[in-house]
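Good morning C.,

I know you're traveling, so I'll keep this short. The sequence:
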Amino acid sequence: MDTVDAMQTTSSELPASENAVVPAPWRSVVRVLWVIGFCVVTVSYALGLLAVHGILRAPCEVESCTLREQVRHTETGEEVLRWPGPPIGYGHPLNVQEVQVLESLGLTLEQYAVFWALELAIPILIYLMISAMLFWRKPDDWMVLFVSVMVATFPFQEMPVPFTLIAQHPVWEWVYIPGNTIALSFFLIFPLVFPTGRFVLRWTRWLALFILVGAVFITVIPDALGPAIMVYLLTSFVLGVYAQIYRYFRVAGPAERQQIKWVVVGIITFMGVGIPLTLVFQTLVLAVAGDDLTRTLVLSSLVDIVFRILYLAIPASIAISALRYRLWDIDIIIRRTLTYGAITLTLGATYFAVIALLQRAVVQITGQQSPLAVVVSTLAIAALFTPLRNRVQAFVDRRFFRRKYDAERTLEAFAESLRDEVDIEHLQAALVSVVEETMQPESVSLWVRKRRERKS
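The tokens, ready to paste straight into the viewer:
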């Protein structure tokens, strides 16, 4: 055997022909519609940010100072509008007392308004950049187009920017209502068609229609639906998760499974880490700040910023998955997330348990608390970190990844087989298996060039 060539298809070179594509006659129309929609949405965001800045730069004179509840002045009187989005991730209008606290920190109300407008503008800019990048890279791929529109409309559901715009300028409802409908329905339909752009289960087509109609009603007449909204959301979410599980275990190939992993990790990062971390931060803020308005104002802003940063994990993971960029890196990320997540939980629980036990023992002996418990707990955590990391990492490798990352052991086993194996076909099969297990390529090809016989 003179030469052996093992060809690896990298994740950035995976064929895109598996996905549903836009028919050739419609491609120009679809591209023009996307560009028009993208421009309109971008303008609405820009005007919405100006509206948010205008509200935050003026002192609040009502009891409820929040962007989630705003007053629209009409010819028939005042109309109170309520936005059902998350209560965190952005600033709120300050009352007179809070303005005084702000000034005591050496800041003006104008600086406060600019800061929070930028805090919303930067994520919006990232969403738009991701959306534009997806469209630029694969403008004829239905799934990529779907994702680009979904990401571009994220702010309609999780930021009070378009809402603030329509509260002050009702004429923009012609953008807000369709944008809100698309944002909600696309997010719920996404698990039914991802990652190929096709419905795997036939009945999910009817579910997609149900989701779209429901999103229209929720956007147009939210107050009239009441508890039905929660039933709609829960049903759509559960069935979407089922569709993804079915696709992953019954239909998806290796590349599609890696795509699904990326999206799942992005969502879990936000829901499993972002939301709990935000709740913990909020609890700490209430405990530490107490009645001190200065501490409350500063610490609560940190909670909002952390929430906004962690939310970016969702569009980022979806973009990577849709473009099939570095798909196989996700296994390493999952491995490290499982390892260090388990270490963090274990060491955190150990730390607080040791502090509690030592403090209780010290109080019973001396009658007062001592910082000795904190020092001892810190030293114990430092001593436990390395051995605990090694044990957890070994467990994760054995339980979830088997021998994928134990390349040294795999190569040693192959070297032993070389000493005993004489069948060339068995050796070829063993070599392909080694490459697959250690490098995890999408496909492996092996060519063996036969030795040419010399003429006498």
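Safe travels,
E.
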